[in-house]
Task: structure prediction
Amino acid sequence: MTGAMDIGIPQLLIALLFIVTAGVASLRLRLGLERDLLWGTLRTVAQLVLMGFVLIYVFQLRQWYLIVGLYTVMILFAAWIIRGRVRSTSVSYFLPTFMSMAVSYLVINVLVVAVIVQADPWYLPKYFIPLGGMIIGNSMNAIAIALDRLFSDLIGKRARIELLISLGATAREASAEVYRDAIRAGMIPSINAMMGVGVVFIPGMMTGQIIAGSDPLVAVKYQIVVMLMLVGSTALGSLLVISLVRRRCFSADHRLTIRERSS
Amino acid sequence: MINIVSELSTEAVLQVRDLTFRYGSTPVLSELSLDLYRDDVLLLTGASGAGKSTLLRVLARLLEPESGTVLLNGQPREDIDPTRYRRRVAYLQQQPVMVSGSVRENLLLSFRFGSAEPPSRELLGEMLDRTALSGVSLEQSAAELSVGQQQRIALLRLLLMEPEVLLLDEPTASLDDEAARLLMEAVAAAREQADRAVLLVSHNDGGASDVLSPRRAVLRSGHVEEAS
Result:
């Protein structure tokens, strides 16, 4: 078999029945989700169709800077999305978040595509963009969780942190526990995913490869690399982001300066 | 005559001049000046929201003033390493904050951040005895103590840094009369022991008069005024 069986338009429309079912449930139970379901369905179809056309074009590219540029734009969007998921404070974190994500994700993606998969050239878009997208999608959630935890704890544990500062602690010493808890909170979901993979669920990438006709054992090897890559990118991304953003929550003389911003 | 501000004096441990602080656009402290001397206790009262706690937090370098100077033994505080300054000008929070762990771990908290040798168990035990905490074991959980006992542990924790100035932020606000008296006696002993300067803010007397015989002043409209 070479590639997955195509799905016809009528068959695709049948899949809409799933949404209709959810919509009817929402109406009957007064969940108020009809509008979101409709909007979500339209966005899913439009974004994926658009993505399909973009990928057809992108997979033909042979200039490394265009591929890396596109990857950077994807990371920029991810950093933008994180802004909406983290509680609003007086600390601006967009730039350090974007920079940390760009550096860590680029390093890990190049390592996976060039050294582990051994694609030639190292930026081969068929591998670089989808694998990079998986890194961004998964680590984005981790970074949002870690940042939200960092801000919540710095604000919620102000009395304790200021006690330690009053006792001669530096900002780094006074926030050591909060720092560790934030990074841990970001990493736990990807570690949990390693525990359940292959037992509780078959991951999307492996499913896709098997449907597309790959040998399941090859698909397994790719999936192992992906799982480990996701833990690595989550750890490295969270570590960099939290380290940089924590510094912005304190002044040079170790005062805790972060404030909750009332919306 | 109560001397809130003298000519620049070398005797003053802490000299505060023209201190101004705002929360956003709301002025809280307005060109405030005061002096604190060795072996001196100043009781600063004022209505709720007058800025008493803000003043202490500014002096403890937990808030940055908009303008003004603070001199510690004649030295501008900007010239002093902030972690060293905070050890010399110690700040007691209104509500005692205990970290999880034993009484001993709480007492020795500041030694995690410096190079000083922690005191022996015997010395810690004597400190507890002198502060009416003889029934408290060094190894018991600090969370089990009453608020009054925790506040005295918090005071002892500061004294182990051997500060020159004690800033006390309504320390008796949540204590009953007996616990307030015991805390004030511990403050009096701490003052006598090393000629420390004490700045105590409270919305009322806070049980200080009987034990400490303090100078008195009132914080009003962002200024320190002599008490009438």
User: Anything to note?
Assistant: Residues 16 and 70 of chain B are 5 Å apart (CA to CA).
